[in-house]
Amino acid sequence: MILPGVAGTTTVLSNHKWRNIDNPKSRYGNLENPIRTDANAALKLLGKKTFALNLILDSQKRITHVTAGHAVDSFNMAAKKVIEHSRIIVKTQPDVVITSNGGYPLDRNLYQCVKGIAVPEQIIHDKSRIIMAGECADGISHGAFKKLLLAGSPGEIYAKLQSADTVRDQWEVQVLCRILLKNQVWFVTRRELKSEIERMHMHYAPTIQEALRSCNVIKEDRVLVAPEGPSLILRAA
After folding, report:
1. Mean pLDDT for the chain?
2. Domain 91-236 belongs to what architecture?
């Protein structure tokens, strides 16, 4: 709520800088990471005692757990509960992962759907294919995100971001390019977005079935379905 919620642009960009996003700890389900460390430090700058109330919801939006009290301590307690109930151990690396952004409103635009694409990053191998399904009712939405992704190949973009000052929306571009350097992504959404998706270095498919056909799934392939998207924490055994 403080960082990035009401923080200034310079502070937000610093929190989302290349080094923080690139850090191996900055992945789903890691409580100790540089992005969270920055947020905790920002809270201390308030110079006042703070009280936090954290609610954990299930897939039906029902409250399953509540923590309250000191902002950092109560958050950590809530996060550990989320990890406990949302973590899924994957024993074998899948060849194909079908995922989503968890539906509306999280999949309102392609920019936000990068979160769903990143869900299986820690449990796939270099040849795994990712199939992402999202409605993207608002299209791409973030102009800076689109402009950055059209500036070259994933490798070129990744290198440019590493050596340049942090700019708006680069964090989602950085994560997507990091994945695209190793894995192909098929995006299942509305047909009118086909051209833009392909220009952003991904494959377009109108249906899950067509995506499976296009990425050449064979009988021996191991297919993992993660329909809840960012609500899941996937971990390798």
Report:
1. 95
2. Alpha-Beta Complex (3.90)
